[in-house]
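User: Teach me something about this protein's shape.
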Amino acid sequence: MTGYGKSVTVFQDKKICVEIRSLNGKAMDMSTRIAPQFKCREMEIRTLVSSALERGKVDFSLWVEQSDKADTPAINSEVMQGYVEQMKTISENTGIALPGNLFEVLLRMPEVVARKEVYDVTDEEWAVVLEGIKSAIDDLLAFRKQEGEALEKRFRANIANITALLAEVEPYEKERVEKIRSRIVESLEKNVGVEYDKNRLEQELIFYIEKLDVNEEKQRLTNHLGYFIETIEGSLGQGKKLGFIAQEMGREINTLGSKSNHAEMQNIVVRMKDELEQIKEQVLNVM
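Assistant: First, the predicted structure itself:
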């Protein structure tokens, strides 16, 4: 959900600038910085942005850049004239001479110089602002789309790697059965040194090995891998669902590791976990 969008539109002597940034987030968390004349439209802006971006931490900025002419400070001649008349009267009554730099003094008096601030927004101007906001949103969505395409390629590579690693488990399954049998027999003969019922041993081995069977975990993990790809190819807004599927994949991989009882199989499980961790890190970026 990381993205960036910006637009600059012109209305009369003003540049209207819109900037939107978004970061990962499970819900919509929007902060705004809006020029004073557009503050009354904040709820409309929030609704427009929220409906388009759905979720994430969003920073929205809207400001206006006036042309040099429009931004020129205005001198209030009536206020200045009032100050002059008052100062003359005080000078005559007190005998204090007027300052030589009278004009400079007057320019520093309150409300003599003020910037022009226009807070009334016409429907025509607001239409231009809306177009600017929509353009910035489109820009951000295009950014997100590019990121989404890159994420899809990464996810597919991770899933393909886990699938390939899962296939590598099979050759070690029969091998570990023989190793378990040999280790138990060797332990009985060397450490215990007693006669034992071979038929009973076989029964116990079968029971023990059944507890270590990983076929169900392999099948469920295979189903989860396929469902993850199916969800990617489905409708939009499946980020949370992909996160849940990744959690289920993690459960099966963990169980596979705890049942493996074989060094090579455990190494494969570690590599699977590495691929899955990459998926979990990036799935938060999906809408």
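Now, about its shape. The chain has three domains: 3-66+121-143, 74-114, 145-283. The mean pLDDT is 85. If you'd like, I can walk through any region in more detail.
User: That's plenty for now, thanks!
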